[in-house]
Amino acid sequence: MSNYHIKHLEEYYQVYRKSVQEPEKFWEEIAEEHFLWQKRWDEVLSWDFAKPEIKWFDGAELNITENCIDRHLATRSDKTAILFEPNDPNDPTEHITYKQLHERVNKMANVLKSQGISKGDRVCIYLPMIPELAISILACARIGAIHSVIFAGFSATAIASRVNDSDCKLVITSDGSYRGAKTIDLKGIVDEALESCPGVHTSLVVKRINSDVSMKAGRDKWLQPLLDEASNTCEIEIMKAEDPLFILYTSGSTGQPKGMVHTTAGYMVYTAYSFKNVFQYKENDVYWCTADIGWITGHSYIVYGPLLNGATTVMFEGVPSYPDFGRFWDIVQKHKVTQFYTAPTAIRALARQGTELVNEYDLSSLKVLGSVGEPINEEAWHWYNDNVGKNKSPIVDTWWQTETGGIMITPIPFVTPTKPTYATLPFIGIQPTLMSESGEELMDNQVEGKLCIKFPWPSMARTIWANHKRYEETYFSTYKNKYFTGDGALRDEVGYYRITGRVDDVIIVSGHNLGTAPIEDAINEHPAVAESAVVGFPHEVKGNALYGYVTLKDTGESRNQENLQKEINQIITEHIGPIAKLDKIQFTDGLPKTRSGKIMRRILRKIASKDTGDLGDTSTLQNPEIVKDIMDNVV
Ligand code: WTA
């Protein structure tokens, strides 16, 4: 029996049992057989969720890029590692072989060194989906610098707060990016951000769109001339198992985004193992995940997981609608993609186009389809299954989080029978549980509760950068000795899980996590605004969209509401980015509040969702009369 590659359901149960009964032994075998180590570990696992402190493979030494690249050179040096599909379908595809990747990563690593970056330094990467993004990530890992990728849709303010939080010394960006028919001035956004980032001494600029950007003397440097000069060999930095590999920010229900810290060895073992099994990856498959590397999905399942397995991973620069809504299918046909991993919001947008385009292309290469980022509704699931998978490619509905580093609940294709809208069974080594409102563990099937994980897994985030207390409070204080996910779920009669959505103030819009607090803070910056509350409401394509309730300061003047709406969305765009714009804004004289002054979001959510049949108990409000007023004026 090969624990590394599960092939049928009975084997899944066997391997799963072993992974929870003897987790140390199980993961030790995987780690031993499938990776290169510079030094072996002293202890497979030590953990204490009360502290919380989790260590996997402590004492071991390694470099993840040796595992992603160097060790494949003997057998796969001319195999394509990264298949880059540019925004414009008329531009040539770029095939970067393992050998070329090795050289380019080494050169980039040497450039970083020449700019004074060394082990433990933080490097911010703000790039579009071009090969330099993956190469920069790997170059950081090669020299032990901690990468902090910021999705290239975030605003200058959002970049600055992240760069300062983790005290990045250097930023890698580009002169701009292509997005369908548009170009975006990334350099300008970074320049604005860096005005308030005194710790950044260097900005390396990739030339992508040949735009006329200004370069600040002493700080900004074109990357290519430095690469041209750099040597193509670079020794790996020897890293400890628990040395940080990267920081990735995710929204919390309150306050600033959380810089989740992932460490080296456990992350490597788990992303490699889960990639192999969840996508039933086989040599010579062409794997494509449509996510942006700015999110965890891209880190784990475009870069690290596939490269650790010596796979060919597609990187797509563009958008699904350019030059038309057939682009995804065109890419699948052109490169004979075997695994296709996308988000429900993309599926819904494509489904809206009907079936004509999807039927125009040859999708027969596809073997496995994946979904991630938010619950997939039944209609989208069937559209995907019927029209893309042609009822023969299983859909893996993968539930996981930035914090979990890797896929946690998922079917294994051709192994676990799928069920629409269900993420189904825990992946190997994962021990989920559901908790009742009163904090009891729900042991039966056919129950609904708050989703927690009872036992550590190798790729869990170890802390929040510079804020371990927040890590403890957010994830380990709600339920004793359990990691709390922030999601609700139900478990059916056979033990399948269905994720029902966030139970906190995080809203998932088009698969992007957004905290309500920072959006409200941005709205409240508007001089006319007294107070605001943001909630989610169901949206046909985005899954959820944002609804803002805004009260204005009483200045006696009348204000043009249309202009105000535009101004509010402009402020949100500046503070966070266009993804956080409100779809609907309702101006109201007040917000429903409890006697202690807390906004009753539950009621606002129901009103925004037009689900006002049962608003629950409103008698504890200090201003119950406002509820009717809000309902009468709902947008
Ligand atoms: C949601 C993305 C239902 C969930 C990898 C989680 C999902 C949050 C699914 C994490 C799924 C992710 N079904 N909900 N298959 N996958 N989610 O950190 O609410 O960007 O907590 O990680 O997305 O989003 P994040």
Automatic annotation (TrEMBL):
Q: List the Gene3D superfamilies.
A: 3.30.300.30, N-terminal domain of ligase-like (3.40.50.12780)
Q: Domain of life here?
A: Bacteria
CDD domains named in the record: ACS
Give the enzyme's EC designation: 6.2.1.1
Domain Acetyl-coenzyme A synthetase N-terminal as annotated: residue spans: 12-68
Q: Which UniProt keywords apply?
A: Acetylation, ATP-binding, Ligase, Nucleotide-binding
| SUPFAM superfamilies per UniProt | Acetyl-CoA synthetase-like (SSF56801)
Cite a single Pfam family from the UniProt record. AMP-binding
Q: Taking every annotated instance into account, which residue ranges of this chain make up the domain AMP-binding enzyme C-terminal?
A: 519-598
User: A Gene Ontology MF term for this entry?
Assistant: acetate-CoA ligase activity
Q: What class of enzyme is it?
A: ligase
Q: Which residues form the AMP-dependent synthetase/ligase domain?
A: 70-462
Q: Which family does it belong to?
A: Belongs to the ATP-dependent AMP-binding enzyme family.
| Protein name according to UniProt | Acetate--CoA ligase
Please give the organism.
Gelatiniphilus marinus
Gene label: acs
